[in-house]
Amino acid sequence: MQTKPTLTTSAGAPVPSNEHSLTAGKRGPVLMQDYQLLEKLAHQNRERIPERTVHAKGWGAQGVFTVTHDISQYTCAKLFSEVGKQTEVLSRWSTVAGEAGAADAERDVRGFSLKFYTEEGNWDMVGNNTPVFFVRDAYKFPDFIHTQKRHPRTNMRSPEAMFDFWAAQPESVHQVTILMSDRGIPKNPMRMNGYGSHTFSMWNAKGERFWVKFHFITQQGHAFYTNEEAEALIGKTRESYQEDLYNAIENGHFPRWTLKIQVMPEADALTVPYNPFDLTKVWPHGDYPLIEVGVLEMNRNPDNYFQMIENAAFSPSNVVPGISFSPDKMLQARVFSYADAHRYRLGTHYEALPANAPKAAKLNHYHKDGAMRFFTNDFGNADAYYEPNQYGGPVADARVQEPPMTIDGDMDRYGNDQLVDDYTQPRALYELFDAGEKERLYANYAQAMGPCSPGVKERWFAVLEKVHPDYAAGVRKACAALDSDVNAVPITSETPTDAEDVNTAPDTV
Ligand code: HEM
User: How far apart are CA 476 and CA 198, in angstroms?
Assistant: First the structure.
């Protein structure tokens, strides 16, 4: 008696055999009419989609955000409208440079992506575990990522390219300092903070705008691996983050983060002695203290990793009324880049996939048809397929319009002017490190820079010199010690570094 469900084709017809091909005679060949076999092989050929061009290796979970403090004086976003309010969230953490099969415990910046399924649509926070970034102009991003990926000829990672690039971009030294510090290999995604990194904006019901930075502070505490510990771990398992995260959630140890924001009144942007929209800088906490907002708890492993995590499409373009962008020119580039990547990686209707479809907001739009348009075209009103129309179709709501933002200045291509100070903040960070942290910083550099040419090393030492002479001297000495001991030169083809943001002094400055 058959107790198991009957296997079917993808058209729903029962399948007589999943083991034996339909052949002409006992010895074959296969008949072309064995369509179930053809379908099975064809599906296998289409099981992979392009991996993310950056942040390809990732780990994710589902959970909930709960408001604990009222911030309605800063934003009218409904997800923050009252204490106790809960919003469903999808998260994905990632390394930047490694491919989809990269080892988890590699030295790299970590991505920290969140999708809040709010009643006003999805709000995505696509940040990193660092509050700053390597570059401040989007023109430099593709080149920067090229240096983090494989060399076109050797097909290996190239420390020479990484430090060649960084040495020519001193603005990167803040982020590289974080990358080479203990924060460069968190023990797992639960033991690190998340940062929106950019300056965003909020506006309240009165139409007042504030500049805002987002901080997700781990309640598990920071923990890191040294290079040696990570190497030993990777020898045993390449999936340590997935294991830690999945098992913690399965065992009911739900990781939590406290959301805090820094808030700058709109007019302050003109008076603070730095560019508050420069992604390579943090805002001093003394001037703009952290304001508590709520708690993020990730408490569910996805039932299907591919469906919820690989198909997840996080984009800084996904904002909701009450939260918006800032003049940060990197942010504008990201507003374009992610949705473009999603259309390529997932297809035109990626937003209708389960991971990305709004869960608490009702959809109403006039986009039509196209490949894989598998959901309704009319949202219950078939005649209203154009706008304006006489059939009561959806119309725009001017009440959600962002208040005007004053922009001034001449159109130009503005470079780094002499007044930009790229060294004070990394210096403050360096000075915060205790003796042990500094020694590990130097040693991490020595391993990462080991294969670099003397010329590139010297150029980077010159950048470090401007941060702090002791910093340059420490790294120089560690590099020299490694150089002098040929046997100690580590295998660095996996020195994964990548690039995106780092988190740093911010918490401390
Ligand atoms: C992923 C572009 C800067 C954080 C991506 C992806 C692209 C991209 C194309 C792959 C998206 C996908 O296929 O789903 C850019 C560009 C940047 C930039 C053009 C600068 C102009 C940044 C910065 C941060 C960041 C500054 C953090 C503050 C992330 C994260 C992911 C990602 C976390 C992975 C998202 C996920 O989990 O699916 N980026 N990026 N990126 N980026 Fe960026």
Answer: 32
Q: For residue range 220-275, what is the model confidence (pLDDT) as tens digits?
A: 999 999 999 999 999 999 999 999 999 999 999 999 999 999 999 999 999 998 89
Please indicate whether residue 478, judged by its CB atom, sits closer than 6 Å to ligand 1. no
Q: Determine whether the shortest distance from the Cβ of 440 to ligand 1 is under 6 A.
A: no
* Residue type present at position 202: M
Span 471-505, pLDDT tens digits:
999 999 999 998 876 444 444 433 333 333 333 44
Q: Is 357 helix (H, G, I), strand (E, B) or coil?
A: coil
| Ligand 1 atom with the shortest distance to the CA of 130 | 28
Closest CA to 108 of 370, 508, 494, 468: 494
**What is the number of the ligand 1 atom nearest to the C-alpha of 52?**
13
The H or E element containing residue 180 is: helix 173-180
Ligand 1: centre distance to CA 91 (Å): 14
The residue type at 396: A
Q: What is the secondary structure of 109-126 as a DSSP string?
A: -EEEEEEEEETTEEEEEE
Report which of residues 493 and 52 the model is more confident about. 52
Name the residue of 54, 139, 214 to mutate for ligand 1: max ligand atoms within 8 A of Cβ. Answer: 54
Verify whether ligand 1 is closer than 6 Å to residue 338 (CB atom): yes
Q: What is this structure's pTM?
A: 0.94
Helical axes 469-484 vs 454-467, angle rounded to 10°: 150
Q: Indicate which residues carry an active-site annotation.
A: 55, 128
DSSP string covering 182-231, please? GGGSBSSGGGS-EE--S-EEEE-TT--EEEEEEEEEESS---B--HHHHH
C-alpha separations of 386 from 16, 202, 368, 415 in Å: 48, 32, 10, 44
